[in-house]
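Hi! If you just cloned this repository, the fastest way to understand the data is to look at a raw example. We've pasted two of them here, unedited. The first protein comes first, obviously.
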Amino acid sequence: MSNADYQPSPIVIVAPRQTVHWIIAGALSAIAVALLLRPDSAVLGSAMAQNALAGSRGLHAFTGQLDKDKYGLFMMDVDAGTVWVYEYFPLKRRLKLVCARTFTYDRYLQNYNNDDPTPEQVEALVERERMAASRRGSAVPPVSAAPATPPQANAARAPAAPAGGLDAPPLDVDPDALPEDIIAIDEPAPASVETAKDRRKNPKGARR
């Protein structure tokens, strides 16, 4: 066979079926929808949450440790005022009633089997502290904020300086208009002038 007579045959590629992928996608979608519609899902958890234990009524159950290797179930009936405890045995898978009692009258007790300090001792301590604080407050007089006296008022209360003081201004008086006796009394002659007159009158006595 020559190359001129050779004709290549066409190659047909059959694509694989997509049925398996569609089945997997559908299954995943169904699982997602089922998780969203579950009653105990996280989306609905806040709407179906129970009330808090404190201040609620009815029956309450909670687990706890009774001893080193013992665990139990604690139950409380708030309406009946009763509490009881079951001990759990894991090997036998059984619960055993350990104790039960009512607390109806327990809540009316105020002081029973208390260690120091008792409520009476605490009351005495508080009263002692209050008395000490009141004594400290009465020992220190309260500080009154008296208004400061203005300097004008102080100047008004100050006594007036005498007219003839050292700091008084000189008087404008004409000595010629005053009598001679007043001038002699107010202005005595200096001692040096009198001594010169005595020397002129009695020169011998001055020499002595």
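Ok, and the second one:
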Amino acid sequence: MLTVPGLCWLCRMPLALGHWGICSVCSRAARTDKTLCPQCGLPATHSHLPCGRCLQKPPPWQRLVTVADYAPPLSPLIHQLKFSRRSEIASALSRLLLLEVLHARRTTGLQLPDRIISVPLWQRRHWRRGFNQSDLLCQPLSRWLHCRWIAKPSHEHGPLRPSIFSVPGYASAT
């Protein structure tokens, strides 16, 4: 729920529907107009063809949908969600992603997902924050897209062990 009911998180103008969180003007302004690779999201020459890196070593997913770069006006909201315990922002950010998914479906024929998987969070970080921001984004998105949501436990894999590569004079720590 919004702390200031009915106002846009970005421009503070009144919303037609208060639970949206971000008005339609700010939603359109936040969208990236850059040409991005459809598989990795990095800048590319064509938005409908994978970049050279993805052609050489394709990622395990078929298509990536992005809202915007990690830059203002959305980056402060993402930072608040992750580090300032402002979990109420998650549904507004999920809605932006939903709009991009639906736009990609209309313009490129993107198939809707049959499941959404949350990115696991280290157990210690989950304990400090009190939530996994990925879960907060995935839960409403899966409901709106009518697909299954799989929340992975944050302790399933544990933190990665640091390693030192084999360099002359050094031993490997793994």
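That's it. A detail worth noticing about the second one: Residues 34-66 form one domain.
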